[in-house]
Design brief:
The chain is an alpha/beta fold. The chain is built from 17 helices and 12 strands. The chain has 2 domains: 263 residues, 3-Layer(aba) Sandwich (Aspartate Aminotransferase, domain 2); 147 residues, Aspartate Aminotransferase, domain 1, CATH 3.90.1150.10. The strands form 2 sheets. A 7-stranded mixed β-sheet has the order 1-7-6-5-4-2-3, sandwiched between helices. The N and C termini lie far apart (61 Å). About 4% of the residues have low confidence. The protein binds pyridoxal-5'-phosphate. Pyridoxal-5'-phosphate binds next to helix 5. The site of pyridoxal-5'-phosphate has 14 residues, from helix 5.
Amino acid sequence: MTISSGRTNAENVEQYPESNPVMGMEEDAVHFDTIAVRHGHHKTAEGEHSEPLFLSSSFVYQSAADAAAHFSGAVKGNIYSRFTNPTVRIFEQRLAELEGGERCVATASGMAAILAVALAFLKAGDHVVCSRAVFGTTTSLFEKYLQKFGVQTTFVTLSALDEWKEAIQPGVTRLFFCETPSNPLAEIADMAALSALAKANNILFAVDNCACTPALQKPLAYGVDLVIHSATKYLDGQGRALGGAVVGSHALLEEVYGVVRTCGPSLSPFNAWLFIKGLETLRLRMEAHSASALTLAQWLSVHPAVERVYYAGLPEHPGHALAARQQKAFGGLVSFVVKGGKDAAWAVIDQTRMISITGNLGDTKSTITHPATTTHGRLSEQAKREAGIEDGLLRVSVGLEDYQDIQKDLARGLDSLIPALAAKTECVST
Ligand SMILES: *Cc1c(COP(=O)(O)O)cnc(C)c1O
């Protein structure tokens, strides 16, 4: 790992740097937070201290010959921002380094990142094995759109290695795809076991690392081939912009790059600039999200209005030991089932005064969602049952507000479901 000293070096910019020169720092002295704050920024001749925003769709050349050399690839450099952009490149290099990957290609959204992987590595007749517990739109992408182009997908239980094994069609299955932990039910995948199975069958393995980010989990270290991000979530972390990314080896990412540059879902430099600043505080934020989420999960698990809590940080969670091995902390998403079904769940939502009622997650602001009628509302009753989306299920993306205020905002609705507690709350407030 190398890192930019941050010295002004106009030559670097013109030479389109492949790596970041180390000046005055031993390679092994560079840690996660240092990479997150400094990596990838080669200062321009202006000597700017903060990462510059290059809002330029195209780039210019010294001469006709210089232009020709750029277009032929003989000289490396920027041509057009659908291909490369200096601000986007800072984000890509920084995220690649944080994930421990050789290269990153940024995309316009998380879905664009998944689509780019599909277009890069799948063709008509190929087969995909995907966890049932993935982001809803990911399921639609595989089921509805890729199927149109002759790609078949089998959906399996994330934590059931046997199902993955049985779903493999030798020589036809090309891709394994999952998220771990899953959302909203926090199932955990054994990444080392799945990647061994994938390798033995010549299958690519892609993991959507949106929920953990590299601050908590680095899938490439478990033999995963491709890491996918919705940068919209924790990488930005402040609910401002859409973006995505794919990270992996040079060879695989060259294919992804070809798709993005040709098909066009390139990341806006403005959004990249926001994500660069987001990465700088990533570990601090993920630890704070995780700490509050764990406390909330513990409190919910003993609340009389709560039937069940889904959070891998709780020792009784079936994936707890595995998550503790793979992750530095358990993340910011807590789901729970309240007693009394949909009416009770809606009552909890409607009595919040601070927590935002929205489907988004990974924000400094806490959010609350009723999956059965929002994110998973289009699923049939049977599909909901299979996916474990009960009527009483709520998902909270725990933000960075003071923990006491988050708990209090949920306690109001939860206490109201228990007559004895509601009476007590009333007494106190009158
Ligand atoms: C939001 C999300 C996506 C899609 O990302 P967009 O940026 O909204 O396109 C993919 N995977 C997961 C796990 C997500 O939460």
